Amino acid sequence: MYAVATKSANDALIRLFDDLVRCETRLYNAIGESLRQEHGIATSQYEFLRYFRDHPGSRIADVAANFAAGIGAISKGVDRLEARGWVARHPNPTDGRSSLVSLTSAGALLVADAESTFRDRLAELMTADLAAADVEATGRVLATLRSALERDRVGLPVG
């Protein structure tokens, strides 16, 4: 009996994982298509710009920790944003080995403009089939899971 209950619980976790990952991928891609059409940017670029808007003067390591991504990958992404004039790197006055990244005025304008596209498309995709209470309940569950994973430093890239 215990083996059946465990298998059932494990099957439920596997289904949750599959649904969570596939939903994230489909939402990310659909929003990316809208951002690309309307603003010429990818979802990842929008997310970086929004992060720098909300966290001016961030280090690359801060961004990498937030997105659970490698420092090298984040640095390359920031290089591309910097090449387009959307962010600027400044020397870190407390650590000469790192730099601080902030939005430029062009980056601030772009993220402000793209924000409405992002919000509108996200609402269109999620509220057609989900009640507000479902969104709030799911948000609480995912926030709890994310907090535990971050607290325990689970899923960070190696290196």
- Low-confidence spans: none
Radius of gyration: 19 Å
Distance between the termini: 43 Å
* Major sheet strand order: 1-3-2
Quick one: overall form? globular
By DSSP, the count of extended strands is 3
Mean pLDDT over the full residue set: 92
**Class derived from helix and strand content:** mainly alpha
Largest sheet: 3 strands, antiparallel
List the helices and strands and how they pair.
Layout: H1 2-39, H2 43-54, E1 58-59, H3 60-67, H4 71-83, E2 87-91, E3 99-103, H5 105-127, H6 132-151
Fold and architecture overview:
This protein has 159 residues and is mainly α. The chain contains 6 helices and 3 strands, in the order H-H-E-H-H-E-E-H-H. The chain has helices at residues 2-39, 43-54, 60-67, 71-83, 105-127, 132-151; strands at residues 58-59, 87-91, 99-103. A 3-stranded antiparallel beta sheet has the order 1-3-2. Strand 2 (87-91) and strand 3 form a beta hairpin. Helix 2 (43-54) crosses helix 5. It is globular, with a radius of gyration of 19 Å.
